[in-house]
Amino acid sequence: MSDEILNADASASFPNDRRKRNIPVATDRRRALNAAEKRRTSERRRLIDPTTCERDYNDEETDFMKAMDRYKRENRRPFPTWSEVLEVMRSLGYRRVAEPTELPGNGPKKTVAAPVEAVV
To answer: Distances from the Cα of 59 to the Cαs of 16, 47, 52, 63, 119, in angstroms?
Structure first.
């Protein structure tokens, strides 16, 4: 028998063959157009230097990152808890001195606990 006859017999004996059905698949969320649009509208991307892929940190941010790195190395804590992060901030001299404000970002505006600020 030829291949055509075998294929015809197979499709006749298996009418619900899944290989013969046209089943829609999910849309790929990583499409280039969608990603490019998100990059254009993302606030985060504007703060990153495209040549080095790093942000320009101010002195306070650099001091905090160095203190956190030192804490993690000295205490062998690669993922410190939020309580430990607060301890590091307090060790740098940060204290709550202002009223609560809105959180930064694009989410819904809600007031939360007061931010921690440096005591001068």
So the answer is: 67, 16, 19, 6, 16
pTM: 0.45
Range of the domain at 92: 59-118
5 belongs to a structural domain: no
List of residues 6+ apart from 116 with CB closer than 8 A: 86, 89, 90, 94, 95, 96
User: What does DSSP assign to residue 111?
Assistant: B
Residue 10 has pLDDT above 90, yes or no: no
Give domain status of residue 49, yes or no: no
> Is residue 66 very low, low, confident or very high in pLDDT (cuts 50, 70, 90)?
very high
Assess whether pLDDT exceeds 80 at residue 34.
Answer: no
Q: How many domains does the chain divide into?
A: 1
